[in-house]
Design goal:
The complex is a heterodimer of chains A (about 300) and B (about 450). Helices cover about 30% and strands about 15% of the residues of chain A. In chain A, a hairpin with a 2-residue loop joins β7 and β8. Chain A has about 300 residues and is of the alpha/beta class. In chain B, the strands form 4 sheets. In chain B, strands 7, 8, 9, 11, 12, 13, 15 and 16 form an 8-stranded antiparallel β-sheet that branches. At the A-B interface, α1, α2 and α6 of A face α2, α3, β2, β3 and α4 of B.
Chain lengths: ~300, ~450
Amino acid sequence: MSEITTETLPEARALSTLDALESESIHIIREVVAEFERPVLLFSGGKDSVVVLHLAAKAFWPAKVPFPVLHVDTGHNFPEVIDFRDRTVERLGLRLEVAAVQDYLDDGRLQERADGTRNPLQTQPLLDAIAAGRHDAVFGGARRDEDKARAKERILSLRDEFGQWDPRNQRPELWDLYNGRHTVGQHVRAFPISNWTELDVWRYIEREGIELPPLYYAHEREVYRRDGMWRAVSEVSPARADEAIERRVVRYRTVGDMSCTGAVESDAASVADVVREVATSTLTERGATRADDRISEAAMEDRKKDGYF
Amino acid sequence: MGDALFRFATAGSVDDGKSTLVGRLLHDSKAILADQLESVARTSAERGFGGEPGAIDFALLTDGLRAEREQGITIDVAYRYFATGRRSFILADCPGHVQYTRNMVTGATTADAVVVLVDARKGVLEQTRRHLAVVQLLRVPHVIVAVNKIDLLDYSESAFTRVADEVTALTRELGLPEAHVIPVSALAGDNIVERSANTPWYAGPALLELLEALPSLDELETELEALRMPVQLVVRPQGALAPDVADPEAFRDYRAFAGRIASGTVRVGDAVQVFPGGATTTVVGIDAGPVELASASAPQSVSLRLADEIDAARGAVIAASGSLPEPRRELDASVFQLDPRPLVPGARVLVKTGTSTVQALVTAVHGRRDLGTLALEPADRLDANDIGQVALKLAAELPVEPYADHRRAGAFLVIHPQDGATLAAAIVTPPVASAADTPIRTTTTEGAAA
């Protein structure tokens, strides 16, 4: 940091939408780090948590991100995503905590569901990992535009020792003053990109050159049709006898378990292609790709009340 | 896609058609996608909505929780997102009937504009007055009054003019800036996105046109105000440098004050003053992550490097040199009581403003505002949804300023010291004489906040 000539540096101007959102998110991340003892970031390798991690790196640069990341591993992850997770943690010098659903199935604390999906089984391992790490704040990449129940969630959301969300009894959120006070046993879920839309996320990924797991971009894959979605052929999501397996060019709009996430047919091979595709899409990302949210109109609300994100 | 961000809140009384207006705005600006529309159309048909087949109950688009759909009410502030060619919008949808002040206050604190709905057949109601009183106290820059259901009055100009005159009289009485009054039908879509042929006598813009054109709060204020930046934390990597920093040696002694600029602009080379202590130094660097900036303005998040080793931590405020206000321990405030437990004189609370949280004592309740007239009337406690005037004594000096001069330096939360609940939103005001000329009572200790 030697002599600085300011003539070549960018000048202040009216903030663009992305700059305004970035500024708000960095403010939130710094507030949580300043006011809590042991924050952790829930990191799945999905685009939203990748963006939160990128924002955290900017918030504390040139210092390292001052908290670990936690992955709830259902055992049904896409291998490309696990590989991406491990490379990211290595690149940023982070500590990775893993809560494995498989451990709970092996010793009988949880039982496999009849439909074979493991997404609903994440809540218990998540809450145990929060307690074991004594984490008083848990960052997540949830956005309010994803779902009607999430539209009502606060940026800082207080949870009791069962991780429960009580939508009728939330703290009012005023100005940009976040109240993170909590008592023993309570923790706070913090959602720094609450106000971002799917398109904002993609435009930001494009602007910042953020790397994502490759399955967000068009690739050829063996798939079969179920519930109006293209599902990947894998050990944990085999096709039934009556489901024809085809090779198609697809990409994923959300990345969850192989057993509940559908792909969309797409030839968007680059981030610029994806931005164009998302801008003109006529389906929501969850409606297009998530079997877990199709169960009922209040599926997300019910899972949130039980301590899910 | 729109490049600038604009935040607005919607408010209305029960049955004003607010959910329908929000649904219409989202639908007509193409923010509702096919699967959402299909789900709403299915539910509308199941419930026998409307006379015509295929009619959609737009209110269903915005009711998020099961209880809301079952009871046909809206419980809590919901946030919606849409964009036009000119702007991206964040809409805080504030329900009118349950805890209306709490919801209105929540929506108004971050809003660049508030859209208040009035039923053309009913005109200005008690709750309209209350909503506009909150808007006035919180100084939301733009007020839009949508006179809804004009279709039910056969698009009558005289009916609209009658309501518009009432609104104008009310905004004058409350000391509000002039409101933009628009005749609309949320159900039929008149003057929501495009100007309607049904109201040829109305020469003004459609609602969305107006929202695209009004300047945002930061556009209005940034140029005018002196620099303030509350320090969130000090970035000092020492041993814990990010592994991807290219030249570690250059950052060994890096030390910068991280925060979000609350007002004004900072430039490299500017003289600044730091609270507490008031020491003066010079800004030698402005960092936004690894990018160095020549200048930055509210509401950007940055890290400031200073020429001198200043002993400052979280809670410090960096201000333009010579502009730092006199720190205060005693202040008067307008309080928006949100918690059901009443606020009483003698209550011990926490005050959070900027990045400081200090203990405080409520030394007096001066009175409660009549929300019809904003006049202060005698009261010795503030109940939920009351707006009142109190005096506070802080356990430590803070550089607070009147909210009217400086939004972010004059806004604070009142927090319960034990359970951490947000009891009230509050703004610093000039000293106010007590409504009743009675001595301050300090004996009352009812309510858990006492």
